[in-house]
Specification:
The protein is of the alpha+beta class and 303 residues long. The chain is 29% helix and 20% strand. It contains eleven helices and 16 strands. The strands form five sheets. A four-stranded mixed β-sheet has the order 6-8-9-10. A hairpin with a 2-residue loop joins strand 11 and strand 12. The longest helix is centred in the first third of the chain and has 13 residues. The chain is elongated.
């Protein structure tokens, strides 16, 4: 990260090997989150970072990390840890995480240059892994977010600790794209009930620069592919596995026999004619949800 150089300059006394040992210790202790600890610290001429033993005086409120916390630790705070974030706040200024006590002054300010806007490229959205980025709403307001290794995006925990603004617009943006990594059926069928309308779906997709057809979303170590349809009978997005299932069915004679040979069906604005076997050859990627069906044989016989 670019912030690394700034931290090294500001904390010249903290050697590289100390930083590495600290991070290794954090990882080894990630399942041992406690509010109280009997560990005790010894003094050191170097800035303190896990410079302690269990043989001396009890740890006190003055046993705080000195200087800026390294970015590896900041990334853990912002969601890269495998376990749940366990930040304990004593009053309004003292925090403890993974056995480390620190205050707001220990949290480095992440340069705005780190927060690049994410846009779709060839219908691929890559939020990155352990990546800081920003969302710019239609009214021009910018929001800071983080894409974790495990595959989700959210506001910055460190921004919350620093009491920076974290409003509903940011939360809804993060919720929408996190939902896109899952089964989108529920939200599509119940959009008003869960808080997203089709119009809002369109807004997020258009802001991102997503076109119709297949769209792939990458977050951390996860990846998901959806299909964006123009159909008014569905939500904007369909999971790929559902598209594939319907695509295979629509190419079978079982599907075509209800219409009969010679019937004309319109798929994605293009006409297809059922052959003698009551089959049609649909190209993969056609909008099979935007369909104008011909009358079935049963209905024709009633006419």
């Amino acid at each position: 990260m670019k912030i690394g150089k700034n931290i090294v300059n500001e904390r010249a006394g903290l050697r590289v090997e100390q930083n590495q040992l600290a991070i290794e210790h954090i990882k080894s202790q990630k399942k041992k989150i406690t509010k109280k600890s009997k560990d005790n610290y010894t003094t050191s001429p170097q800035p303190r970072y896990f410079n302690y033993t269990k043989k001396y005086a009890q740890k006190s409120r003055t046993d705080l990390y000195e200087g800026y916390l390294p970015m590896e630790f900041i990334n853990l705070l912002n969601g890269d840890d495998d376990s749940e974030i366990g930040v304990y706040i004593d009053g309004d200024s003292l925090f403890e995480y993974k056995g480390i006590r620190f205050t707001r002054k220990n949290i480095p300010e992440i340069p705005e240059s780190e927060f690049e806007e994410i846009k779709a490229v060839n219908n691929v959205i890559d939020f990155g892994k352990s990546n800081y980025f920003k969302y710019v709403s239609r009214n021009g307001k910018e929001y800071r977010l983080y894409s974790t290794k495990k595959g989700c995006i959210s506001s910055l925990e460190t921004d919350r600790l620093l009491k920076k603004e974290n409003d509903l617009a940011l939360q809804r943006y993060a919720h929408f794209w996190n939902w896109c990594m899952e089964d989108v059926t529920t939200l599509n069928n119940n959009a008003p009930a869960v808080g997203f309308t089709r119009k809002e779906e369109q807004k997020y997709l258009e802001e991102m620069g997503v076109g119709y057809g297949f769209v792939t979303i990458k977050m951390g170590n996860r990846e998901n592919t959806l299909f964006r349809t123009k159909s008014k009978w569905h939500g904007e997005l369909i999971n790929k596995y559902k598209y594939d299932s319907k695509y295979e069915y629509m190419r079978t004679s079982v599907f075509g026999k209800q219409f009969g040979a010679g019937a004309v069906i319109t798929i994605g604005g293009k006409e297809y004619i059922f052959d003698a076997n009551c089959q049609i050859d649909i190209p993969y990627g056609a909008d099979i949800y935007d369909v104008k069906y011909p009358p079935t044989l049963d209905k024709r016989s009633d006419m």
